[in-house]
Amino acid sequence: MRDYFRPLIRSDAPRPSDALPLAGGPRWFTHVARHRRDGSVTRLPASALPDPVRDRLTAPRGTVMGLRMDRPQIMGILNVTPDSFSDGGRDRSAPEAALRGRRLMQDGADLLDIGGESTRPGATEISTGEEVARTEPVIRALAGVPISIDTRKLAVARAAIRAGASMVNDVSGLTFDPDLARYCIDNALPVCVMHSKGDPQTMQDAPEYENVLLDVYDFLETQVEMLLANGLDRAKIIVDPGIGFGKSQAHNLALLNGLSLLHGLGCPILLGVSRKGFIGRIGNAPEPTQRAPGSIAVALAGVAQGAQILRVHDVAQTRQALALWQAVETGAPHDA
């Protein structure tokens, strides 16, 4: 039976002499939780870790798009769609969208994630041409800004990269378009591999898992190993558990509670929970725009587990919360 090891992360002082660093960052652990598919979870000393697992848990993560992964980075969401669940239809032109993007950067975003096709529950697929028409002009208008293209399609990614984007964020985890992985590998592009179950039209129709935490880990591991086997450096790969994509509220909470397991993949973790439906239900905030406090609370819980990238709508509020979190945690203002 396979063992899965989840580091039990801490950041308080004093740090024990036998503590292991988490992903080269400020957090550390002395114990791990061993998960098995029989449902058992056992606390073990970190000294019990197999060498390959220990190495992946502790190895410093490389920079992504010039951004350090030993501190949390904020990815601002810039949807250029008429139907995204939270901010669709805000901009009538590429210049307007680009202006909103630059404001997000001024608010404290470290990079932008630009998407032209809504992947909210129930959304229908649009044509490649329409998706390119929505995203390419905005990317060109944002010259000089670090940009990730949020797409499942090779043609859209290719047009975005030519326009100035430098990373691909695929909500299908490179399963929708079989040629997109090859393109990212051939061009040594940073790529975020996200887990989702089903397509946006059907993904919330009673999703089921044997063990959601381990099932998501296995999927992401398979995709990471595929990329590595075909020549992409691990430092170029980011993983995302896909909160809200083919998951019930219970699934989302189980993934968030066990998020640190994903450090065993040896890649930076991207966490996207901003304004998701479960935040509205638990936090009694029916309107997506009312969900900033709950979104920030969950994002900071992810930071406590070592998440390196936070994908958010409310950039200024998240930046402020993160600055205060880090100041309290370290006892001094964060040195950016």
Written overview of the protein:
By secondary structure, this protein is of the alpha/beta class. It folds into 2 domains: 1-60, no CATH class; 70-330, Alpha-Beta Barrel (TIM Barrel), CATH 3.20.20.20. 35% of the residues lie in helices and 15% in strands. The chain is built from 10 helices and 13 strands. The protein has helices at residues 51-58, 94-107, 128-141, 154-163, 180-186, 212-229, 249-257, 277-283, 292-304, 315-330, and strands spanning 4-7, 20-21, 28-29, 31-35, 41-45, 73-79, 111-115, 147-150, 167-170, 191-194, 237-240, 270-271, 309-312. The chain has an 8-stranded parallel beta sheet with strand order 11-10-9-8-7-6-13-12. The chain has a 3-stranded antiparallel beta sheet with strand order 1-4-5, with no helix packed on it. Helix 2 packs across helix 3 (128-141), helix 3 packs parallel to helix 4 and helix 9 packs across helix 10. The mean pLDDT is 93.
The global form is globular
Helical/strand content category: alpha/beta
- Mind telling me the CATH class of the largest domain? Alpha Beta
Number of helical segments? 10
Number of strands: 13
Helix content estimate: 25-40%
Radius of gyration: 19 Å
- Mind summarizing the main beta sheet? 8 strands, parallel
Strand content: 15-25%
List the helices and strands in order: EEEEEHEHEHEHEHEHEHEHHEH
Count of domain modules: 2
- If you average the pLDDT, what whole number results? 93
CATH-defined architecture of the largest domain: Alpha-Beta Barrel
CATH superfamily (homologous) name of the largest domain:
Dihydropteroate synthase-like
